[in-house]
Amino acid sequence: MTTVWITGGKGFIGRNLAKFIAKQNTKVYGIGHGFWTDDDYRAWGFSHWLNAEIDFAGMSQLVADFGKPDVVFHLAGGSAVGPSIQNPYEDFQRTVDTTARLLEWVRQNSPASRVIGVSSAAVYGSAFNGPISEGDNGKPFSPYGFHKWMLESLFSSYRDSFGLDVTVTRFFSVYGPGLEKQLLWDICQKIEKSKSTDITLNGTGNEIRDWLHISDATQLLWLLVHKSSNEFTVVNGGTGIGTSIAEIASMVCEQWGQNHKVKFNGISRKGDPKSLVGDISLANELGFSPRISLQQGISEVVAWYKARKLT
Predict the structure, then answer these.
(1) For the stretch 285-297, what's the b/e string if a residue is b when 16 or more beta carbons lie within 10 angstroms of its beta carbon?
(2) Ramachandran region of residue 305, left (φ > 0), alpha (ψ -120 to 50) or beta?
(3) Which CATH number fits domain 176-209+241-276+292-309: 3.40.50.300, 3.20.20.80, 3.90.25.10, 3.60.15.10?
(4) What's the whole-model pTM score?
(5) Model pLDDT for residues 81-110, shown as the tens digit of each residue
């Protein structure tokens, strides 16, 4: 039986990943910030949850109680551009410091463990117009993007210098039921609170993004556990399909079912890319194939939001 740790396991991707891999004859242990009752963490598939820092003390406690991990999914860190701009040093601590502590602990205490880190397409910056491959050299703009790039650099360094078995996936726009932030959540909130059928969003509406359903994201992460090569690899996590923000907003309004219309104010955040779409050829070679269409995924999100907020 494989033993898995998930850092930052209380987050959106972490808890969904735990639920998925707990069904694979796998023990899942989580560590990170946030109190959970026993019933809460078990409902998400965790055998145990440790509310603690990602540091030597916390990880050593997990080993003392449950043994060393075969695989560590490193999901702890900043999760969005906006908060990183408001408080860049906190984002640095959450992403870069945490990664350095984890990798150093693995080097000293569990060097046979495979470590899979989650990065972001924000490392590519805003210079691309078509599908972006892992070898394309971008330039991150936001603190969030720079800190994810630093995370990747630490992974690469520990692989080259110490022979750790590490892999990174760069997720594009991960979404799904339960995510209480970012675009789909914002649109649903605006529709819910609107006193008219018109809602307004920032930007032009022409911005292109690659949307990956959470169930497909967890599928890819699990595939990375079983990839044949132990060479350091960065793998794009997306669908390879670009969709404009205007199209996304239209789909949400259609699923909501009350004839709302979306307008765009033309105000964009400095550094926001016009296009961010992944070339997923490498992921395809690993056996990855996205299964959830955007239409289906948005339908799930709207149904979840309505059930949670309006009943």
Answers:
(1) ebebebebebeeb
(2) alpha
(3) 3.90.25.10
(4) 0.94
(5) 888 889 999 999 999 999 999 999 999 999
